[in-house]
Write a structure and sequence with these properties.
Low-confidence stretches: 417-421
Mean pLDDT: 85
CATH architecture of the largest domain: Up-down Bundle
CATH topology of the largest domain: Growth Hormone, Chain: A
Number of strands: 0
CATH class of the largest domain: Mainly Alpha
Largest sheet: none
Structural class: mainly alpha
Order of helices and strands: HHHHHHHHHHHHHHHHH
Strand content: under 5%
Distance between the termini: 27 Å
Number of domains: 2
Number of helices: 17
Helix content: over 70%
Shape: globular
Protein backbone atom coordinates (compact mmCIF):
# COMPACT_ATOMS: atom_id res chain seq x y z
CA UNK A 1 0.00 0.00 0.00
CA UNK A 2 2.81 2.38 0.92
CA UNK A 3 4.60 1.49 -2.32
CA UNK A 4 1.45 2.28 -4.31
CA UNK A 5 1.01 5.62 -2.56
CA UNK A 6 4.66 6.43 -3.18
CA UNK A 7 4.28 5.66 -6.89
CA UNK A 8 1.11 7.74 -7.06
CA UNK A 9 2.85 10.66 -5.36
CA UNK A 10 5.82 10.46 -7.72
CA UNK A 11 3.46 10.27 -10.70
CA UNK A 12 1.53 13.34 -9.55
CA UNK A 13 4.77 15.20 -8.84
CA UNK A 14 6.11 14.32 -12.28
CA UNK A 15 2.91 15.48 -14.02
CA UNK A 16 2.88 18.72 -12.02
CA UNK A 17 6.51 19.43 -12.92
CA UNK A 18 5.71 18.80 -16.59
CA UNK A 19 2.62 21.03 -16.45
CA UNK A 20 4.70 24.03 -15.37
CA UNK A 21 7.91 23.07 -17.19
CA UNK A 22 7.96 25.92 -19.72
CA UNK A 23 6.84 28.41 -17.09
CA UNK A 24 9.75 27.39 -14.86
CA UNK A 25 12.42 26.96 -17.53
CA UNK A 26 11.70 29.79 -19.95
CA UNK A 27 12.09 33.28 -18.54
CA UNK A 28 10.67 34.89 -21.66
CA UNK A 29 7.53 32.78 -21.47
CA UNK A 30 7.06 33.75 -17.81
CA UNK A 31 6.83 37.39 -18.88
CA UNK A 32 4.44 36.44 -21.66
CA UNK A 33 2.27 34.29 -19.36
CA UNK A 34 1.99 37.13 -16.83
CA UNK A 35 0.98 39.58 -19.54
CA UNK A 36 -1.46 37.08 -21.05
CA UNK A 37 -3.09 36.42 -17.69
CA UNK A 38 -3.52 40.14 -17.00
CA UNK A 39 -4.98 40.44 -20.49
CA UNK A 40 -7.54 37.70 -19.83
CA UNK A 41 -8.53 39.23 -16.51
CA UNK A 42 -8.99 42.63 -18.13
CA UNK A 43 -10.99 41.10 -20.98
CA UNK A 44 -13.58 39.53 -18.67
CA UNK A 45 -13.66 42.57 -16.39
CA UNK A 46 -14.37 44.86 -19.36
CA UNK A 47 -16.99 42.54 -20.87
CA UNK A 48 -18.85 42.45 -17.56
CA UNK A 49 -18.65 46.24 -17.16
CA UNK A 50 -19.85 46.87 -20.74
CA UNK A 51 -22.96 44.74 -20.29
CA UNK A 52 -23.74 46.35 -16.94
CA UNK A 53 -23.26 49.86 -18.35
CA UNK A 54 -25.57 49.19 -21.31
CA UNK A 55 -28.23 47.93 -18.92
CA UNK A 56 -27.76 50.96 -16.64
CA UNK A 57 -28.05 53.40 -19.57
CA UNK A 58 -31.00 51.76 -21.35
CA UNK A 59 -32.74 49.55 -18.75
CA UNK A 60 -33.33 47.16 -21.66
CA UNK A 61 -32.32 43.50 -21.84
CA UNK A 62 -32.69 43.59 -25.62
CA UNK A 63 -30.03 46.33 -25.79
CA UNK A 64 -27.65 44.05 -23.88
CA UNK A 65 -28.36 41.43 -26.53
CA UNK A 66 -27.62 44.02 -29.21
CA UNK A 67 -24.26 44.69 -27.56
CA UNK A 68 -23.45 40.98 -27.99
CA UNK A 69 -24.38 41.29 -31.67
CA UNK A 70 -21.98 44.21 -32.13
CA UNK A 71 -19.26 42.32 -30.27
CA UNK A 72 -19.85 39.11 -32.21
CA UNK A 73 -21.04 40.16 -35.67
CA UNK A 74 -17.83 41.64 -37.15
CA UNK A 75 -15.85 38.68 -35.90
CA UNK A 76 -18.33 36.28 -37.50
CA UNK A 77 -18.18 38.17 -40.80
CA UNK A 78 -14.43 38.77 -41.04
CA UNK A 79 -12.87 36.30 -38.59
CA UNK A 80 -11.39 34.04 -41.24
CA UNK A 81 -9.52 36.97 -42.83
CA UNK A 82 -7.50 37.49 -39.65
CA UNK A 83 -5.35 34.50 -40.54
CA UNK A 84 -4.70 35.98 -43.98
CA UNK A 85 -3.22 39.10 -42.35
CA UNK A 86 -1.13 37.05 -39.91
CA UNK A 87 0.31 34.87 -42.67
CA UNK A 88 1.16 37.93 -44.77
CA UNK A 89 2.94 40.01 -42.11
CA UNK A 90 5.21 39.38 -39.13
CA UNK A 91 2.97 38.07 -36.35
CA UNK A 92 4.81 40.13 -33.71
CA UNK A 93 3.93 43.38 -35.49
CA UNK A 94 0.34 42.24 -36.03
CA UNK A 95 0.07 41.29 -32.36
CA UNK A 96 1.54 44.58 -31.15
CA UNK A 97 -0.64 46.78 -33.34
CA UNK A 98 -3.80 44.84 -32.49
CA UNK A 99 -2.99 45.17 -28.78
CA UNK A 100 -2.35 48.90 -29.18
CA UNK A 101 -5.76 49.24 -30.85
CA UNK A 102 -7.49 47.19 -28.13
CA UNK A 103 -5.75 49.20 -25.41
CA UNK A 104 -6.96 52.45 -27.00
CA UNK A 105 -10.51 51.06 -27.08
CA UNK A 106 -10.36 50.32 -23.35
CA UNK A 107 -8.81 53.72 -22.62
CA UNK A 108 -11.50 55.49 -24.66
CA UNK A 109 -14.23 53.74 -22.66
CA UNK A 110 -12.49 54.69 -19.41
CA UNK A 111 -12.28 58.36 -20.42
CA UNK A 112 -15.90 58.46 -21.61
CA UNK A 113 -17.16 56.72 -18.48
CA UNK A 114 -15.16 59.04 -16.21
CA UNK A 115 -16.47 62.12 -18.01
CA UNK A 116 -20.08 61.01 -17.64
CA UNK A 117 -20.72 61.61 -21.36
CA UNK A 118 -20.71 57.96 -22.39
CA UNK A 119 -23.66 56.83 -24.51
CA UNK A 120 -24.82 53.42 -25.61
CA UNK A 121 -23.69 54.24 -29.16
CA UNK A 122 -20.12 54.60 -27.89
CA UNK A 123 -20.29 51.15 -26.33
CA UNK A 124 -21.68 49.58 -29.50
CA UNK A 125 -19.09 51.26 -31.77
CA UNK A 126 -16.14 50.29 -29.59
CA UNK A 127 -17.48 46.73 -29.24
CA UNK A 128 -17.52 46.44 -33.05
CA UNK A 129 -13.97 47.83 -33.36
CA UNK A 130 -12.75 45.39 -30.69
CA UNK A 131 -14.41 42.54 -32.57
CA UNK A 132 -12.51 43.42 -35.75
CA UNK A 133 -9.19 43.70 -33.90
CA UNK A 134 -9.73 40.33 -32.23
CA UNK A 135 -9.99 38.76 -35.70
CA UNK A 136 -6.24 39.20 -36.10
CA UNK A 137 -5.19 39.16 -32.43
CA UNK A 138 -6.11 35.50 -31.86
CA UNK A 139 -4.20 33.85 -34.74
CA UNK A 140 -1.29 36.27 -34.29
CA UNK A 141 -1.02 35.32 -30.63
CA UNK A 142 -0.94 31.55 -31.25
CA UNK A 143 1.57 31.90 -34.09
CA UNK A 144 3.76 34.17 -31.96
CA UNK A 145 3.71 31.69 -29.06
CA UNK A 146 4.81 28.84 -31.30
CA UNK A 147 7.69 30.90 -32.68
CA UNK A 148 8.66 31.87 -29.12
CA UNK A 149 8.73 28.46 -27.38
CA UNK A 150 9.21 26.08 -30.30
CA UNK A 151 7.07 23.22 -31.49
CA UNK A 152 8.27 20.83 -28.74
CA UNK A 153 6.81 23.03 -25.96
CA UNK A 154 3.72 24.20 -27.82
CA UNK A 155 1.25 21.75 -26.24
CA UNK A 156 2.51 22.67 -22.79
CA UNK A 157 2.07 26.42 -23.29
CA UNK A 158 -1.37 25.99 -24.87
CA UNK A 159 -2.48 24.10 -21.76
CA UNK A 160 -0.96 26.71 -19.46
CA UNK A 161 -2.57 29.53 -21.43
CA UNK A 162 -5.96 27.82 -21.31
CA UNK A 163 -5.67 27.32 -17.54
CA UNK A 164 -4.95 31.03 -17.09
CA UNK A 165 -7.91 31.92 -19.32
CA UNK A 166 -10.27 29.66 -17.36
CA UNK A 167 -9.11 31.09 -14.03
CA UNK A 168 -9.59 34.62 -15.34
CA UNK A 169 -13.06 33.70 -16.62
CA UNK A 170 -14.00 32.58 -13.11
CA UNK A 171 -12.44 35.46 -11.18
CA UNK A 172 -12.76 38.35 -13.67
CA UNK A 173 -16.57 38.83 -13.65
CA UNK A 174 -16.69 38.55 -9.85
CA UNK A 175 -13.92 41.13 -9.52
CA UNK A 176 -15.72 43.39 -12.00
CA UNK A 177 -18.86 43.21 -9.87
CA UNK A 178 -16.94 44.34 -6.80
CA UNK A 179 -15.25 47.17 -8.72
CA UNK A 180 -18.54 48.39 -10.21
CA UNK A 181 -20.25 48.34 -6.80
CA UNK A 182 -17.44 50.27 -5.14
CA UNK A 183 -16.13 52.63 -7.83
CA UNK A 184 -18.29 52.35 -10.95
CA UNK A 185 -17.38 51.08 -14.42
CA UNK A 186 -14.41 53.39 -15.11
CA UNK A 187 -11.80 51.34 -13.16
CA UNK A 188 -12.90 48.22 -15.07
CA UNK A 189 -11.98 49.79 -18.40
CA UNK A 190 -8.76 51.19 -16.95
CA UNK A 191 -7.82 47.71 -15.69
CA UNK A 192 -8.22 46.30 -19.20
CA UNK A 193 -6.07 49.07 -20.68
CA UNK A 194 -3.35 48.31 -18.11
CA UNK A 195 -3.59 44.60 -19.02
CA UNK A 196 -2.90 45.38 -22.66
CA UNK A 197 0.00 47.63 -21.69
CA UNK A 198 1.52 44.76 -19.70
CA UNK A 199 1.11 42.43 -22.67
CA UNK A 200 2.68 44.93 -25.09
CA UNK A 201 5.72 45.29 -22.84
CA UNK A 202 6.00 41.50 -22.54
CA UNK A 203 5.86 41.00 -26.33
CA UNK A 204 8.45 43.73 -26.94
CA UNK A 205 11.04 42.10 -24.69
CA UNK A 206 10.64 38.57 -26.10
CA UNK A 207 13.06 37.09 -28.60
CA UNK A 208 11.60 34.28 -30.65
CA UNK A 209 13.45 31.03 -31.35
CA UNK A 210 12.56 31.18 -35.02
CA UNK A 211 11.02 34.44 -36.26
CA UNK A 212 8.75 33.94 -39.24
CA UNK A 213 9.03 36.00 -42.36
CA UNK A 214 5.35 36.72 -42.83
CA UNK A 215 4.93 35.17 -46.23
CA UNK A 216 6.34 35.77 -49.69
CA UNK A 217 6.08 39.51 -50.36
CA UNK A 218 6.66 38.98 -54.07
CA UNK A 219 3.43 37.00 -54.29
CA UNK A 220 0.50 38.79 -52.79
CA UNK A 221 -2.88 37.33 -53.74
CA UNK A 222 -6.00 39.24 -52.82
CA UNK A 223 -7.38 38.60 -49.33
CA UNK A 224 -10.19 36.46 -50.75
CA UNK A 225 -7.75 34.44 -52.88
CA UNK A 226 -5.46 33.99 -49.88
CA UNK A 227 -8.41 32.82 -47.78
CA UNK A 228 -9.46 30.32 -50.46
CA UNK A 229 -5.84 29.15 -50.67
CA UNK A 230 -5.87 28.49 -46.91
CA UNK A 231 -9.15 26.57 -47.06
CA UNK A 232 -7.81 24.47 -49.94
CA UNK A 233 -4.67 23.76 -47.96
CA UNK A 234 -6.66 22.47 -44.97
CA UNK A 235 -9.01 20.40 -47.14
CA UNK A 236 -6.07 18.99 -49.07
CA UNK A 237 -4.21 17.72 -45.99
CA UNK A 238 -6.18 14.72 -44.64
CA UNK A 239 -5.03 14.94 -41.03
CA UNK A 240 -5.87 18.66 -40.81
CA UNK A 241 -9.26 18.38 -42.49
CA UNK A 242 -10.23 15.34 -40.41
CA UNK A 243 -9.34 17.04 -37.13
CA UNK A 244 -11.06 20.26 -38.19
CA UNK A 245 -14.22 18.23 -38.90
CA UNK A 246 -13.98 16.60 -35.48
CA UNK A 247 -13.59 20.03 -33.86
CA UNK A 248 -16.67 21.26 -35.76
CA UNK A 249 -18.81 18.30 -34.69
CA UNK A 250 -17.81 18.62 -31.05
CA UNK A 251 -18.24 22.39 -30.89
CA UNK A 252 -21.60 22.44 -32.67
CA UNK A 253 -23.88 20.87 -30.02
CA UNK A 254 -21.92 19.00 -27.30
CA UNK A 255 -20.25 22.12 -25.87
CA UNK A 256 -23.35 24.32 -25.56
CA UNK A 257 -23.35 24.40 -21.75
CA UNK A 258 -23.72 28.18 -21.65
CA UNK A 259 -27.25 27.75 -23.00
CA UNK A 260 -28.29 24.45 -21.43
CA UNK A 261 -27.04 24.84 -17.84
CA UNK A 262 -29.40 27.62 -16.70
CA UNK A 263 -32.34 25.71 -18.24
CA UNK A 264 -31.11 22.48 -16.66
CA UNK A 265 -30.81 24.09 -13.21
CA UNK A 266 -34.20 25.83 -13.18
CA UNK A 267 -36.50 23.69 -15.33
CA UNK A 268 -35.03 20.20 -15.16
CA UNK A 269 -33.74 20.15 -11.58
CA UNK A 270 -36.26 22.68 -10.25
CA UNK A 271 -33.56 24.64 -8.45
CA UNK A 272 -32.59 28.32 -8.20
CA UNK A 273 -29.72 30.59 -9.23
CA UNK A 274 -27.53 29.24 -6.44
CA UNK A 275 -27.72 25.77 -7.93
CA UNK A 276 -26.99 27.20 -11.36
CA UNK A 277 -23.86 28.89 -10.03
CA UNK A 278 -22.78 25.63 -8.41
CA UNK A 279 -23.20 23.75 -11.70
CA UNK A 280 -21.19 26.40 -13.58
CA UNK A 281 -18.46 26.21 -10.93
CA UNK A 282 -18.26 22.44 -11.37
CA UNK A 283 -17.88 22.81 -15.13
CA UNK A 284 -15.28 25.57 -14.71
CA UNK A 285 -13.27 23.54 -12.19
CA UNK A 286 -13.16 20.57 -14.56
CA UNK A 287 -12.09 22.85 -17.42
CA UNK A 288 -9.26 24.28 -15.32
CA UNK A 289 -8.03 20.79 -14.36
CA UNK A 290 -8.35 19.68 -17.99
CA UNK A 291 -6.17 22.51 -19.29
CA UNK A 292 -3.50 21.75 -16.68
CA UNK A 293 -3.76 18.06 -17.60
CA UNK A 294 -2.98 18.84 -21.22
CA UNK A 295 -0.08 21.02 -20.12
CA UNK A 296 1.34 18.08 -18.15
CA UNK A 297 1.48 15.83 -21.22
CA UNK A 298 4.76 15.65 -23.11
CA UNK A 299 2.81 15.60 -26.36
CA UNK A 300 -0.80 14.94 -27.26
CA UNK A 301 -2.04 12.13 -29.50
CA UNK A 302 -5.13 11.06 -31.40
CA UNK A 303 -6.14 8.29 -29.00
CA UNK A 304 -6.37 10.81 -26.16
CA UNK A 305 -8.34 13.27 -28.29
CA UNK A 306 -11.05 10.78 -29.19
CA UNK A 307 -11.16 9.38 -25.65
CA UNK A 308 -11.95 12.94 -24.54
CA UNK A 309 -14.79 13.06 -27.08
CA UNK A 310 -16.17 9.80 -25.70
CA UNK A 311 -15.79 11.08 -22.13
CA UNK A 312 -17.74 14.24 -22.88
CA UNK A 313 -20.46 12.20 -24.57
CA UNK A 314 -20.70 9.87 -21.58
CA UNK A 315 -20.94 12.81 -19.16
CA UNK A 316 -23.76 14.39 -21.18
CA UNK A 317 -25.57 11.07 -21.38
CA UNK A 318 -25.35 10.80 -17.59
CA UNK A 319 -27.00 14.24 -17.28
CA UNK A 320 -30.00 12.94 -19.23
CA UNK A 321 -30.80 10.47 -16.43
CA UNK A 322 -29.46 12.25 -13.33
CA UNK A 323 -31.51 14.63 -11.17
CA UNK A 324 -29.37 14.91 -8.05
CA UNK A 325 -27.39 18.13 -7.74
CA UNK A 326 -24.75 16.32 -5.69
CA UNK A 327 -24.10 13.96 -8.62
CA UNK A 328 -24.57 16.53 -11.40
CA UNK A 329 -21.80 18.82 -10.15
CA UNK A 330 -18.99 16.23 -10.38
CA UNK A 331 -20.49 14.99 -13.65
CA UNK A 332 -20.15 18.49 -15.06
CA UNK A 333 -16.60 18.66 -13.70
CA UNK A 334 -15.80 15.57 -15.77
CA UNK A 335 -17.56 17.16 -18.75
CA UNK A 336 -15.47 20.33 -18.37
CA UNK A 337 -12.30 18.25 -18.06
CA UNK A 338 -12.95 16.28 -21.26
CA UNK A 339 -14.28 19.29 -23.18
CA UNK A 340 -11.25 21.48 -22.49
CA UNK A 341 -8.81 18.61 -22.96
CA UNK A 342 -10.33 17.91 -26.37
CA UNK A 343 -10.22 21.52 -27.59
CA UNK A 344 -6.70 22.30 -26.36
CA UNK A 345 -5.29 18.96 -27.56
CA UNK A 346 -6.79 19.16 -31.03
CA UNK A 347 -5.74 22.82 -31.35
CA UNK A 348 -2.20 21.80 -30.43
CA UNK A 349 -2.02 19.28 -33.27
CA UNK A 350 -3.68 21.58 -35.80
CA UNK A 351 -1.36 24.50 -35.09
CA UNK A 352 1.77 22.38 -34.67
CA UNK A 353 1.35 20.46 -37.93
CA UNK A 354 0.37 23.44 -40.11
CA UNK A 355 3.09 24.65 -42.47
CA UNK A 356 4.68 27.99 -41.61
CA UNK A 357 2.97 29.88 -44.43
CA UNK A 358 -0.48 28.69 -43.31
CA UNK A 359 -0.31 28.83 -39.50
CA UNK A 360 -2.32 32.04 -39.30
CA UNK A 361 -5.10 30.77 -41.55
CA UNK A 362 -5.28 27.40 -39.80
CA UNK A 363 -5.39 29.20 -36.43
CA UNK A 364 -8.14 31.57 -37.56
CA UNK A 365 -10.17 28.67 -39.00
CA UNK A 366 -9.97 26.63 -35.80
CA UNK A 367 -10.79 29.73 -33.74
CA UNK A 368 -13.70 30.51 -36.05
CA UNK A 369 -15.10 27.01 -35.58
CA UNK A 370 -14.98 27.34 -31.78
CA UNK A 371 -16.08 30.98 -31.49
CA UNK A 372 -18.64 31.16 -34.31
CA UNK A 373 -19.99 27.66 -34.80
CA UNK A 374 -20.17 27.29 -31.02
CA UNK A 375 -22.71 30.11 -30.54
CA UNK A 376 -24.73 28.78 -33.49
CA UNK A 377 -24.83 25.37 -31.87
CA UNK A 378 -25.84 26.98 -28.58
CA UNK A 379 -28.89 28.52 -30.23
CA UNK A 380 -29.87 25.09 -31.58
CA UNK A 381 -29.38 23.59 -28.12
CA UNK A 382 -31.75 26.23 -26.77
CA UNK A 383 -34.34 25.25 -29.38
CA UNK A 384 -33.90 21.55 -28.53
CA UNK A 385 -34.40 22.40 -24.85
CA UNK A 386 -37.67 24.16 -25.72
CA UNK A 387 -38.86 21.17 -27.76
CA UNK A 388 -37.86 18.30 -25.48
CA UNK A 389 -36.17 19.78 -22.44
CA UNK A 390 -32.49 19.56 -21.61
CA UNK A 391 -32.73 15.77 -21.83
CA UNK A 392 -33.11 16.13 -25.60
CA UNK A 393 -30.33 18.74 -25.85
CA UNK A 394 -27.90 16.67 -23.79
CA UNK A 395 -28.94 13.50 -25.62
CA UNK A 396 -28.24 15.03 -29.04
CA UNK A 397 -24.95 16.44 -27.76
CA UNK A 398 -23.97 13.00 -26.44
CA UNK A 399 -24.78 11.45 -29.83
CA UNK A 400 -22.56 13.98 -31.62
CA UNK A 401 -19.69 13.42 -29.17
CA UNK A 402 -19.89 9.62 -29.15
CA UNK A 403 -20.24 9.51 -32.95
CA UNK A 404 -17.12 11.67 -33.24
CA UNK A 405 -15.26 9.32 -30.91
CA UNK A 406 -16.53 6.24 -32.79
CA UNK A 407 -15.12 7.54 -36.07
CA UNK A 408 -11.72 8.01 -34.42
CA UNK A 409 -10.47 4.67 -35.74
CA UNK A 410 -11.40 5.67 -39.28
CA UNK A 411 -9.98 9.17 -38.89
CA UNK A 412 -6.72 7.75 -37.54
CA UNK A 413 -6.05 6.13 -40.88
CA UNK A 414 -6.28 9.51 -42.62
CA UNK A 415 -4.56 11.53 -39.92
CA UNK A 416 -0.81 11.79 -39.57
CA UNK A 417 0.06 9.86 -36.37
CA UNK A 418 1.18 11.99 -33.45
CA UNK A 419 3.80 10.76 -30.96
CA UNK A 420 2.47 8.96 -27.91
CA UNK A 421 3.01 10.24 -24.40
Amino acid sequence: MLVSLDRLWRHLTDRTDRAFATLKGNGQYRWYFLGSFMLSMGFWIQNTAQAWLVLELTHSASMVGLLVLYAFGPRAAFGLFGGVVVDRYDERLVLLWSHVGLMLCAAALAILAASGDIAVGHLFAIAAIRSLLLCVEGPARTKFVRSMVGRENFTNVLGLGASGDHFARIVGPALAGLMISALGATPCFMANAVGFLAMILAVLRIRRQRPTAGGDHRRRPSPVAALVEGLRYVSGVPYLSALMLALFLMTFIPMSFGTTLPIFAVKTLGRDATAYGTLVSGLAFGSLVGSLGVASRRQTNLVWIFLCAAGLGAAQLALVFERSLIVCVPTLAFAGFFMTSFVVSISSILLSEAEDGFQGRVGSLSGYVVQTIGPLGSSISGWLSDVGGTDLAFGVGACFAIATAATGALVKRAVKPAPQT
